[in-house]
Design a protein that fits this description.
The chain is α+β, with helices and mostly antiparallel strands. It is 28% helix and 50% strand. The chain starts with a helix and ends with a strand. The relative contact order is 0.19.
Length: 122
């Protein structure tokens, strides 16, 4: 729950430093590209009130000095797109949570902190 919330909220705040702390460089690059595309299109993705409904480890493995784990995460959140200039909602509903199911892969090196390495739609 904690890592899911931290990543979603950092993304919603466009907090690149926070994303670098929580995700691998490759994942940060992907998320930063998505944030840049949104900015170019004049929109901002706000994600809040993240609530984990179900989490199941789909697989885990080790490669050299790295551990990996993929979890199927089903969660609710308030997820809206806002116009940067006006603040008006252009997609989503501010008072209606949406349910999402995704596969999140995490990795850690030598028993360190887990970092987000990939997200796939389930």
């Amino acid at each position: 729950q904690q890592r899911l919330t931290e990543v979603q909220e950092a993304f919603g705040r466009e907090d690149h430093a926070g994303l670098r702390r929580l995700a691998t460089p490759e994942m940060v690059s992907y998320l930063s590209e998505e944030l840049a595309d949104n900015a170019k299109n004049g929109i901002r993705n706000e994600v809040s009130n993240v609530s984990l409904l179900e989490a199941d480890i789909a697989e885990s493995w080790r490669e050299d000095d790295r551990d990996y784990a993929t979890a199927a995460l089903r969660y609710e959140s308030l997820d809206v797109m806002r116009d940067r200039a006006t603040g008006k909602i252009v997609a989503g509903e501010a008072d209606r949570p949406t349910e999402t199911t995704e596969l999140w892969t995490f990795t850690r090196q030598n028993g360190g902190d887990w970092k987000l390495a990939a997200i796939q739609q389930a």
